[in-house]
Amino acid sequence: MRRGAPTGASVVIEGVEVSTEHWIGGERVGSSGTFADVSPIDETTLGEVARGTAEDADRSVTAARAATETWGRTAPKERAEVLHRIADLVEERVPQLAAVETCDNGSLLRSMKNSVMPRVARNFRFFAEQLMELGESFEMNGFESRTEWDPSGVTVVITPWNAPLMLATWRVGPALAAGNSVVLKPPEWAPLTASMLADIGCEAGLPDGAFNVLQGIGEEAGAALTAHPGVDRVAFTGSIETGRLVAQAAAANLTPASLELGGKSPFVAFADADLDAVVKQAVNQFDNAGQVCLAGTRLIVERSMRDAFLERLIEAAGAIVQGDPREEATDLGPQITREHFERVDGFVKRARSEGATAVLGGGPNEELGGLYYRPTLVTDVPAGAEVLRKEVFGPVLTLQTFEDEEEAVALANQTEYGLAAILYTGDKVRAERVAERLVAGTVWVNCFFVRDLRAPFGGAKSSGVGREGGVYSFDFYADVKNVCMAPWPQASER
User: Fold this and answer.
1) Are strands 143-151 and 136-140 parallel, antiparallel or unpaired?
2) Average pLDDT, whole number, for the chain?
3) Active-site residue set
4) Helix runs in 142-239, H state only
């Protein structure tokens, strides 16, 4: 068997051959069963993917544990060099990775090429560089204390389907940099680029078992991994409901878990803000067909600007081009699966039955058919309505108004979520004051989606547990150790 080559079961997507088997211990491994991987673009089956079992999960953890004797003992400088080689290979293969992921999850091809896949490479480079900057020491009364970040062991990473490779490497990158071995369980709705990453890691020089990919269903393969006693860290991105299950399983083994969960972010706009900028950014909340956990889906605008804002927003949203995400002109693609499509439509139908009005969109795109849901804006939503409280994760925005700052903050914080918040105002003093009161892991003021990878990232309230980014990632993926040394005697005293 040739290491890193798609052997056995594989599919060809846009001319790119991708293995549909697991990658465990440096080789391709099948399973007794498979599951269908369906493209959201036209609901055709791309291929049959290995369906991991509890036995497969145990095998992957065992392989990862064995690799801690090689990768975990590799010097930081050498680990960083391997991560840089992975980044180099990702950059070389951006067109192939982008084409496969677009077919697999329906994201815009132009976004995959221009930003998402380059960010994959950036994740590896950043954490390779951050690794080499670790180190701090303190002195007190002649005693020296220094901080060390030791590999914690085996890390399980479970990622969602809306940006599967990029979000995986946001966790895989620092885990590998810290010297951990990794088992990645990619999303069953978009599993293919994770398989490609396994080949890239092998080619870059990762030792056997340092990086493993276990394909499968969350309730089966994912559950077996999070409950495995041989796992030292669990990193999960997904829904609040699944996050609770992951936390419970990890807690049974006292396994630390980093959880990035759902979002229902407020987009607060004061009347003194630049209306052009507010409208442009509000339209951007439809990005990736609304399948973005950070999106400011709850538009909360000052009442005096409501009519002007609404008129401009409807006009701007009317220019959105919906269609095949592989086409350059397309702005909005499909929902990920039929199940998810029906879930999104259910939210809108229930909101309308409660008295809300869909002033934009409001249902499937009948012209395109399939899984294409029209960009939707809902107004006159009753207080406490489900669509204001629960994450829709589709191209559905709501509009609320406020009279003063107190009401704006109250509306913004009126959910169990706290992943992010967006604030637009022309008053810097107000911006500082309101940003301090918004309950969120990230607050963007007069901007959106600006990410400095050194900054902490994570959610407040039910939107998550823990922070990652920069040194915060190493604090989680490593066993942080303090070494304190007494003053050494002078040579003459020995």
Assistant:
1) antiparallel
2) 96
3) 260, 293
4) 164-177, 192-204, 223-226
Do the Cβ atoms of 210 and 70 come closer than 8 Å?
A: yes
The residue whose two tokens read 């690794």 is 131
Tell me the two tokens of residue 315. Answer: 């006009």
CATH of 10-261+459-482, one of 1.10.1040.10, 3.40.50.170, 3.40.605.10, 3.40.630.10: 3.40.605.10
Share of the chain above pLDDT 90, in %: 96
Pick the CATH number of 266-445 from 3.30.70.3270, 3.40.50.2300, 3.40.309.10, 3.40.50.1010: 3.40.309.10
C-alpha span between 180 and 176 (Å, rounded): 5
pLDDT tens-digit readout, 148-193: 999 999 999 999 999 999 999 999 999 999 999 999 999 999 999 9
Those residues of the chain that have pLDDT short of 50 are 1-7
Is the whole model's pTM more than 0.70, yes or no? yes
CA angle 464, 466, 467 (to 5 degrees): 110
Distance CA 76, CA 213 (A): 23
Q: What is the DSSP letter of 278?
A: H
DSSP code for 32 = S
